[in-house]
Amino acid sequence: MKKLFWYLLLIFVVLVMLTLILVVDKKLDNKKEVPQDQTKEKLSLLNNIDKKIDYFHYNYLDRYLDYQKKYPNLSDIDIVTRVNLGLDQPFYQNTKPSNELNKITILVNKYTYLPEDYVPNNLTKVSNLFSTSTRELVYEAKEAFEKMAAQAQEDGYTIRVISAYRSYHYQKGLYDNYVSRDGIDIADTYSARPGYSEHQTGLVVDIDNGKLDFNHFEETEEFHWMENNAYLYGFILRYPKGKEDITGYDYEAWHYRYVGKEIASFIQQNNLTFDEYYVRYIEK
Ligand SMILES: [Zn+2]
Would 141 disulfide with which of 74, 111, 258, 270, CB 3.0-4.6 Å? Predict the structure, then answer.
């Protein structure tokens, strides 16, 4: 009799667990609802790419198709990637708060912003061997940057931080000045609005070589050193040439983002922007 009780209890527990698993699974699967018959035809227009990638959102299907009509030469993967980023909407529209606060995989761009009061944890001063004045980075990025700058120095090059962490209010001052000088449309091509600056993450450096102005960094030997070595220390060129339509920024040879060695190598090898990487491998 006692045995029977334990058997029944065991069956009950197993049933409860199975129900829980099913409920959780259903929740996770919400964005991947099984398509209705009428959407099958639409999916075939995208060559059923939904079966091949795990970041396809069925609720964006019409947006994908609209974007495909607008840019018929883009691959299906690029269409999905760009719409997931929000690029089918104008910059600074349909924005959302960043949900990776204090992670090195945090995304900040013209659709994803940081709270006004966000200050990353573990901000640490960069050694003044490699900085023009007091500059701060998140500890992990600071360590990586100093290693990189020290190696560059050993190889005979100079890499100095000229800007690193910037607070929301500091960025607001910068942006407002640019807008009053150049107007909003031009200012938006090279300066981030407050809350939308990657510098607020504490994972970003603007650099120069101590001789030429930073906006001539591309012409320096140090730039070529960075092209070949930055990823080894976990840094990527964040706003590359030819990707302006994805990043929303003019090419910036001097702006590097810390993402860790593994992601930096992958991005380097696959010629991606961090925005594309984020959509395909982090957000999903
Ligand atoms: Zn910058």
Answer: 258
